[in-house]
Structures are given as C-alpha cells and as structure tokens.
Amino acid sequence: MTRPITVGVDGSPESVAAAAWAGREAVRRGLPLRIVHAWHWEPYEIVPAADRDAQARWARETAEGTRRTLTERHPELTVTAEALEGPPVEVLVEEAAAAELVVLGSRGHGAVVGFLLGSVGRQVIAESARPVVLVRSDDRAAAEAAGREIVVGQHGEPDDGAAALEFAFTTAAARGAAVRVVRAWTLPPVFAYSPASLKLLDEAGGLEPYERKALDEALRPWRERFADVPVTEHVEMGSAGQVLLSAAARAQLVVVGRHSSRVVGPRIGSVAHALVHHAPCPVAVVPPA
Q1: pLDDT in tens, 48-72
Q2: 3-state secondary structure of 289
Q3: CATH numbers and ranges of domains, the chain
Q4: Which residues fall within 8 angstroms of residue 136, CB to CB, at 6 or more apart?
Q5: Contacts for 60-68 with beta carbons within 8 Å, 24 or more apart?
Q6: Rounded average pLDDT over 13-35
Q7: Closest residue by Cα to residue 24 from 125, 142, 112, 105
Q8: Cα–Cα distance between 18 and 111 in angstroms, integer?
Q9: How much of the chain, in percent, has pLDDT values that exceed 90?
Q10: Neighbour-count burial of 278, counting CB atoms closer than 10 A to its CB (0-12 exposed, 13-18 middle, 19+ buried)
Q11: 104/5 Cα distance (integer angstroms)
Q12: Where residue 206 falls among pLDDT bands split at 50, 70, 90?
C-alpha cells in the first residue's frame, strides 16, 4: 500500500506553509497527499466557532479549502481531506502510523501552533512512528532551489543514525539536492578513557581522525545506494546542536534523529529540541528504525 504524505492543518499561517511544503514534496516523491484537521470540542474554549456544530463545519471547511488550493496548484496530485474529531495527539499519532511522513506548521522559538499548543506538538513528534517535518510560516519554494543543501546529523555507531540518513538521502534524491552530513564531537571526560578506547584512538591517529573514520563508515552504504547524490562530510568539534544550527543556516532542510529512551518515556532529545525551535529552515525529526 502506498503511504501518503499527511499534513495537519488548522487555518494558521504556519499550517498553510506546511500544506504548501507537503504538496511540493508529494509531487516530488510521486505520493498522494492527505490533509487532516484534528479538532476537539471544548465548550469553554476560545475558538472561531460558537458551538460544536459550527466548529465542526469550520474544521471541514478548513480541510476542504486547503484541498482545493493544493489541487489547483498541483493538478497531477491526488489529494484527500478530512476533519477528524478527537484529542489532537491521538488523532495525529494514529494518522502518522499510516503515513510516509507527517508535516506540521511551527512558529519556531516556541511551541508548535494552532491545535498543537503547549505539550501537544512535542508529544506528536515524540510518539510518531514516522518522520515529522516542521515548517515555518515564512517557508517558500524558492528556498528549495539548487545549491541549498540538505543537512543531516550523524552520531555514534553506523546504525545509530541510519533512519535519519535514509530520510535525508531519499529526500535529496527526489529534489536533486546535495547532502551535508554533520558529525559533531567533544573531548570525552577523563573517566571515559579506557585501554580499549585509547587503542582505537591510537590506531585512528587521534580524536578527529577517529570521528572522520566513523562518519565515513556510517556513510558507506548510503553512498552506494544513492550514488548520484553529492555528499559533503562535515566533522566539527562542538556541541551537536550548535554545529547543526550553524549548518542549517545554509540548508533547505535539516534532518535529525529522535532520541529513544525506554526509561523516561517518549523524548525528542536536546538536539532535535534546539533545531525545532531555532533552525531557520524546515526540520525533519526522524524516529529510530
């Protein structure tokens, strides 16, 4: 079964930009587009509708209006739209399970907007089984022009960032874009050294050559699978969040893996958190495979 790209809309400028981004990406990937308005009736909530029926009608009109706009813009695109009543987190996480990826609007420098106010946006990102892309209201198609890279973070062992690397290379191949793979490193604390780790570092010729070798090994299967995608290896000393944010200033998209923890529950991780709130371009948060 072909998975659609699913976009959550709520009428905000951010969700309008998210829908436009999702439409372009669906065309590039040859996938259908699904538009979802998740809404939850609260009698005392400040909403554009005065009662439940009016709110339901407004939700349907918002979803349908977005569908008409994208169908006119992309006649070749298969687009469906639906207004779904229920707790937004539950609705969007359930929708994500059947999607190739989910696209949401983001204000940046704060919480995700609209029906994702407060902790809802973070929960969707943390719980989604599929990648979630966050798009700012000022995002434009021109930012996807040739010359702007797709930036992706890689860390740890080769398998640790495999899902994020696959997403970045797949997206780059669909766009004819280049990929910059960033691996940030810091000096380990003294107690982290061991005879085994010192032997590995000695064989590699030092810390930075060791990191470069680790990145090269992680990229090997993706270079072979996506031979036509230009790749730049970027190894830099510093915190991962700061290094990726610096690279994101020149990017059309930045991709980061989601933190995985069975101890404290769903988390997006500090690096993803920094990018979601501060990166100037769309951000894709990819769950572990």
Answers
A1: 545 778 888 888 999 999 999 999 9
A2: coil
A3: 5-139 (3.40.50.620), 144-286 (3.40.50.12370)
A4: 14, 17, 105, 106, 107, 108, 280, 281, 282
A5: 62/9, 62/10, 62/11, 62/37, 63/9, 63/35, 63/36, 63/37, 66/7, 66/9, 66/16, 66/19, 66/35, 67/35
A6: 96
A7: 142
A8: 15
A9: 56
A10: middle
A11: 11
A12: low
C-alpha 167/C-alpha 185 separation (Å) is: 22
Structure tokens, 162? 């495999």
- The rounded distance, in Å, linking the Cα atoms of 88 and 116 is 7
Amino acid 134: pLDDT: 93
Structure tokens at 86: 């229920």
Tell me the pLDDT band of 263, cut-offs 50, 70 and 90. very low
Rounded CA gap, 248 and 48, in Å? 36
Question: From the centroid of its chain, how far is CA 108?
Answer: 13
Q: Which residue has the tokens 């639906």?
A: 82
pTM: 0.87
Tell me how far apart the terminal alpha carbons of the chain are, to the nearest angstrom.
19
